[in-house]
Amino acid sequence: MFLDVDDLEEIGNLEKYVAASQCVLIFLSKGYFFSPNCLKEVDAALAGGKPLILVHESDIKKGGVPLDTLRANCASFLRIAVFDTGGEVLPWHRVQDFQLLTMKMIAVRVLHCMPAYAAHQQPPKVHIPGEIALQALEFRQTVRLYVSGFNPGAPALAAEFVGQFNDKNVHIVEQPPPYLQPNHSPRLSRRPSLRLVRNLTRSSSNLSSTERLTHMLLYLNSETFVGEAGQSLSREVKQARASSIKILLVHENDAAHGGCPFDQLFQTTPEELVLEGLYKAVAVACHPGAHRRTSLALVARELGAVPKRSKVVAALNQATPTAPRNSSRKLSSGSSTRSFFCVTYRRSTAV
User: How crowded is residue 72: how many other Cβ atoms within 10 Å of its Cβ?
Assistant: First the structure.
């Protein structure tokens, strides 16, 4: 690994270091294509036919700019070579689970450039132990999640969530209980999404009126708290908070689904809710593409999902009696002994 800001001893040798590399990672951020030395690296990489790995800073506060702006900043004679041959641009998000996924995607690209894998048509499989998107999750306690018809996009997200986590302990509730019902019914054009939720989940009519909600989904995008529906949503949120129902904040970052910067939400959210601390809790970020599954897994974790117990361990817990603490059995020799249970398993090859 060669990092120019740390390992470059002489600026005149920049091209030599690039020539000695198997691939070049470009971290796309504000002003990258206006840096003479960065352009030297790009020119040397393209001249040497080096594979490019493009990583895009997504946080504007950390120097990120829209990808379209970066493409426009890149000289026209370089644009196709950089963006169209560098493969998928990998987003860099500043939450650990998303970072791990991006790092894994980088590792796959780097490995595919190494001599052992370069001739392979497909890159090697890479696994990160404990990666949340690959964990089998389950809900051991009942979750009753209210999805408001006044919250544009929320029913569609609920349907997407149920498609990934269809757990018998998760109930999607569409009809607000009396203590949440506004004075008029919603007028939204997103009823197909509500029907999709209805088809995928157990109907809220099956729930007793005495069964209280555990959570309310607040899906945050450019349409949240806007217009007449937004006023009704605001009343529901206030009543839910007053009833000690946990508000699950989910922030959409996909522009195709109305994603917007979080700061924009302070312009549409009623000031009373902001002052009461609605946004003190950290919202779960919903990102598109390969990061979407991770986003939904984080939503599940916020709702109380935990790693699914192994069937072998569960069976042993039921079949093996628990010995009293501090007890010991004596051998004929008088020495104490303990029982050990050994589980052997085949560990899959991982990088």
Answer: 12
**Two tokens, residue 115:** 């001599």
CB 171 within 8 A of CB 204: yes
Question: What is the token pair recorded at 276?
Answer: 């009461």
The count of structural domains within the chain is: 2
- Rounded Cα distance between 54 and 43, Å, is 15
Q: Pull the structure tokens for residue 80.
A: 């196709």
Is the separation of the CB atoms in 233 and 200 below 8 Å?
Answer: no
Same domain as 266, residue 139: yes
Q: What is the pTM of this model?
A: 0.77
Report the half-sphere exposure of 315 (CA within 13 A, side-chain side): 3
Position 136: which residue type? Answer: A
Identify whether 300 is part of a domain. Answer: yes
pLDDT at 150: 95
> Domain range for residue 254?
133-307
Task: Give pLDDT, residue 204.
Answer: 40
106-129, pLDDT tens digit by residue?
A: 999 999 999 999 889 898 999 888
User: CB-hemisphere CA count at 13 Å for 237?
Assistant: 26
Q: How far is CA 231 from the centre of its chain?
A: 29
**DSSP3 helix / strand / coil % (the chain, rounded to 5):** 40, 15, 45
* Residue 263 within any structural domain of the chain: yes
Residue 331 lies in a domain: no
Tell me the pLDDT band of 199, cut-offs 50, 70 and 90: very low
Compute CA 113 distance to the chain's CA centroid, rounded to the nearest angstrom: 27
Mean pLDDT of the chain: 83
List helix spans (H) across the chain: 4-7, 14-19, 36-47, 67-73, 76-79, 96-113, 154-164, 191-200, 227-242, 262-268, 271-275, 292-302, 311-319
pLDDT tens-digit map of 123-146:
899 988 888 988 899 999 999 999
Which residue did the predictor score with more confidence, 2 or 89?
Answer: 89
Asked if 57 and 69 touch (Cβ cutoff 8 Å), the reply is: no
Domain assignment present for residue 221? The answer is yes
